[in-house]
Specification:
Blueprint (H helix, E strand, L loop, with lengths): L9 E7 L3 E4 L2 E3 L6 H12 L3 E7 L3 H10 L8 E5 L3 H12 L4 E4 L6 E3 L38 E3 L3 H7 L7 E8 L7 H12 L3 E6 L12 E5 L5 E6 L2 H15 L3
Parallel strand pairs: 1-4, 1-6, 4-5, 6-9, 9-10
Antiparallel strand pairs: 2-3, 7-8, 10-11, 11-12
The structure holds cytidine-5'-monophosphate.
EC number: 4.1.1.36, 6.3.2.5
Family: In the N-terminal section; belongs to the HFCD (homo-oligomeric flavin containing Cys decarboxylase) superfamily. In the C-terminal section; belongs to the PPC synthetase family.
GO molecular function: FMN binding; metal ion binding; phosphopantothenate--cysteine ligase activity; phosphopantothenoylcysteine decarboxylase activity
């Protein structure tokens, strides 16, 4: 078989952006569409892999190519597991990863979640006079002085770092993504290299966003780093082309 083929390999890919509930109707979220992760899952299935996509709030239009990719001759399979919140995603990734050869974390996972999501819709009326601080589970969005109630946040687990520290399957390949911007403290690549060392993933695909210097000018440009922060490969193109680049790197690193 061609070395870049993935027949019989099992891949877990996370994609989309998590929604962290404030109450039953509101959430803290992000703008991730899930397109890059779906492109990776689709390209892997087209190469023969059996793929599980852990999907955080991805629209049906964005998900559609995944089903199409399994129809071609020689293609593998694809299964979608919905994981709307960071905690859902952690549970789904850990359980699905226990039988995976590689895990690609392309999802935008919220770093924080409301510590006590309201059990019913929080009301904005009933302004305080001595109503006291909004407490956990309360349905009144009223702060101590009658202003808007603060939303207390707690840290979510870092799923990627958890996989690196305690791999569900020994020897599996763990791949992360990082969208970085440049600022006065350093450029996007320097931030990416620091993140690569911190997270310890076997490969970290760094996307420069809005950098204005070099690789961030291209919508889908990635530099792939190793756990020491050294450059392994770089590429640019469509999300599908970025997916193929990453899958080449993954395929050549899987044990024969
Ligand atoms: O948000 P950040 O830049 O730290 O994300 C980098 C990588 O870490 C991504 O692959 C993302 O999926 C992963 N991540 C995670 N759990 C988090 C935050 C990020 O697995 N709580």
């Amino acid at each position: 078989a061609c070395p870049e083929q993935l027949s019989g390999r099992r891949l877990v890919v996370s994609a989309g952006g998590t929604h962290e509930p404030i109450d039953p109707v509101r959430f803290i979220g992000n703008r991730s569409s899930g397109r890059q992760g779906v492109a990776i899952a689709s390209a892997a299935a087209a190469r023969g892999a059996d793929v599980v996509l852990i999907a955080a709030n991805i629209s049906p239009e964005v998900l559609a190519p995944l089903g199409e990719s399994t129809a071609a001759p020689g293609a593998g399979t694809a299964r979608i597991v919905e994981a709307p919140t960071a905690l859902d995603m952690e549970a789904a990734v850990r359980s699905e990863a226990s039988s995976a050869d590689a895990v690609v974390m392309a999802a935008a996972v919220a770093d924080f979640r409301p510590s006590h999501p309201g059990i019913s819709k929080i009301k904005k009326h009933r302004l305080a006079d001595g109503a006291g601080p909004a407490t956990g589970g309360a349905d009144e969005a009223v702060g101590p002085a009658g202003g808007p109630a603060p939303i207390e946040l707690v840290a979510n687990p870092d799923i990627l770092a958890g996989l690196v520290a305690d791999p569900p399957q020994p020897g599996q390949l763990i791949v992360g993504f990082a969208a970085e911007t440049g600022d006065e403290e350093g450029d996007a690549l320097a931030h990416g290299a620091a993140k690569a060392r911190r997270k310890g993933a076997h490969l970290l695909a760094v996307n420069a966003v809005g950098d204005g210097r070099g690789f961030g000018d291209v919508p889908n440009a990635v530099v792939v780093l190793d756990p020491q922060g050294a450059e392994v490969a770089r590429g640019e193109g469509t999300k599908a082309e970025v997916a193929e680049l990453l899958l080449d790197l993954i395929a050549e690193r899987l044990p024969r």
